[in-house]
Structures
1.
Amino acid sequence: MSTKDNLMAAFAGESQANRKYLAFAKKADADGYKSAARMFRAAAEAETLHAHAHLNAADGVGSTEDNLKAAVSGETFEFEQMYPPYLEEAKTEGQQKAIRSFSYAMEAEQVHAKLFADVLSNLSKEDDSVYYLCPVCGYVEKNGAPDVCPICQAKGSSFIKVE
């Protein structure tokens, strides 16, 4: 393995630790352990610092145009190649929670790819777009939440505004 391979493996590990610690923090908060939750959030931020440092050292952040192209490619890979076999395996095993998780993600990734492509094609026309995130499935809507999520049927009033 090369140093770049090691940097990308470290980036993946640190990124996963960040997300895991944030999930742990949410659980600790729900369980009433505020101090534990704060520590999990602090560690999650530290893992983000490490991940960003590794990605930058691997020259993994390019121009905004290059980054948008990478995002479209990555999202497209996920819904075309990654999630379909994961979903089929979950169906074969009768894993209902996994089926739902993979299905939601696969559908949301299609929307993400389209939104990234739209931003890329209009990059020179900066605007005041605001995005709304479904907290259940990850669907994203531009400039307003729908009445109901087209993927998971969550109420639009639960969407999170992202500016």
2.
Amino acid sequence: MTNKIHAHVPYSRLAEHLEYAISHHMNPEVFFSADALDHLVWEELSSLASALHSAGLNTTIHAPFLDLNPGAVDTSIRAASAHRIRQVMKAAELLRPRVIVVHPGYDDLHYGDNRLVWLKNSIDFWQEFVPQARELGTILAVENIFEKEPSTIKALLDAVDDPCFRHCFDVGHWNMFTTVTLEEWFSELGSYVVESHIHDNHGTSDEHLPVGEGAIDFKQFFPLLTQYAPDAVWTLEAHNTEHLQRALKNIRNFIS
């Protein structure tokens, strides 16, 4: 179990948490904000990556997402989104992540009447980066955010149709936004899942609570995740060390 568990850490705090990660053998999911990418010191990233790899740790990356949208109708927004993903792919050359998590940028409120336009733009957008992911030995994984059901993500994954372009299932976002059951979600997208973001909430806000401290039924979730995606990365999206430690403790109540 330990090898597949990762923990969220912003790049700006990676050096600060490096000793903890190594001593606890905690694989990091490194989140790069736009600001972090613009001020990245590549020699520093190279040194941190070497330390992680030397300690036998795996990495994943969470790409920037605020204000970005790979399927945007506005070409300038798509161009800005592509610029950020190119920066992330360069960072991936050093970190060698198992997975790079990306946000789709879709929601029914904004794109309901333009769903097919968004979908075409998004398909075209990711065609540039999938070959790069393959060369780097990583997988781009589209995370569910505001999706009420899985059809839009499934349409995107089916259209790109590449093993280096898959799904990151965020159970916290599912609990907040979707109108389908866990079984229904996994029956549609379970075979695409290469990573899951694991955190808890009460269904009204993105609280990022430790597992078992909100309203999500993890007794149902973990068997489904194990059944459909036995090799998936599990990323605990705790936002401080105390919550991470509680999550690691609580998760043992739900798995054998």
